Amino acid sequence: MEMCVSANSHQRGARFRRWLVFGIAALSAMVVIAGSISRLPFSEWKTFAMTGPTMEPVLHEKDRVLVDRRSIGKLTRWSIIVFYSPEAGVSRRTLLQRVVALPCERVHIADGKLLINGEACPLPADMATVHYTVPRSTGAAEVYGISEKDSYAIVPPDHYFTLADNSEIAKDGRIIGWIPRENIIGRVTSVYWPPSRSRSF
C-alpha cells in the first residue's frame, strides 16, 4: 500500500514538472509575441466613425472605417480620405470625402457631371450615380469647382479637391475649397463595423 502511494506521488510530480515546463514555454512565447506586436506601426493606422449621411450610399452614419496614414502620398482620383477642414476659424474639424481632382488639374462641374481638364470624368464602377450640384447654401457662381475662374478651378500644387457622394446636402470642396496635403490624415481602406457592412476600398 505504501509503495502505491509513493508511485502515485512520483507520477503527480512528473505531471506537475511537465505542466510547469509547458507553462514557462507558453509564457515565454507570449512575451515574444507581445514584444513583436508592440513594434507594429499602429501609429500609421487610425479609425474613424462616419457622422451624417453625406457619403451615402457607400458609407452610412455610424459606420466605422480603417484609415491608412501611409497612403497620403499615393492618393488617386476617387480615393476616400479623412482630413482636417481648411476652413478659416474651424479648429481641427475632421471630414470624410472623396478625392475627385488632383494637384494642378482643372476641375469643373456642369450639368451634374465632373469635368477634369475639360473632359468628362466617368465614375468608378463600384460608385453609385452622383448628380453633382451647386451647393444650396450658396447658389453663387463663385464656388470651387463651379466657377471657371482659375482661382476656383485649378487645384494648387500639393492640394486636392474633394466631393461627397451625397452631393445635394454635403458641405464639401465646393464650399470649403482646396485641401492641403498636410491636412490629410489618411485614406480609408475599409469598413470594419458593423460586420454586416464590412467592405474594402
List the helices and strands and how they pair.
Blueprint: H1 2-38, E1 45-49, E2 64-68, E3 80-84, E4 94-101, E5 107-110, E6 113-116, E7 119-120, H2 150-153, E8 159-163, H3 173-176, E9 179-180, E10 184-193, E11 199-200
Antiparallel strand pairs: 1-2, 2-10, 3-4, 3-10, 4-8, 5-6, 6-7, 8-9, 10-11
Reported by name, the CATH topology of the largest domain is: Umud Fragment, subunit A
Query: Which H/E pattern describes the elements?
Result: HEEEEEEEHEHEEE
What Rg do the Cα atoms give? Answer: 27 Å
CATH architecture of the largest domain: Ribbon
Describe the structure.
With 201 residues, the chain is an alpha+beta fold. It folds into two domains: 1-40; 43-200, Umud Fragment, subunit A, CATH 2.10.109.10. It is 22% helix and 26% strand. The strands form two sheets. Strands 1, 2, 3, 4, 8, 9, 10 and 11 form an eight-stranded antiparallel β-sheet that branches. Strands 5-6-7 form a three-stranded antiparallel β-sheet, with no helix packed on it. Strand 6 and strand 7 (119-120) form a beta hairpin. The longest helix has 37 residues, at 2-38. The model is unreliable at 1-6 and 25-40 (pLDDT under 50).
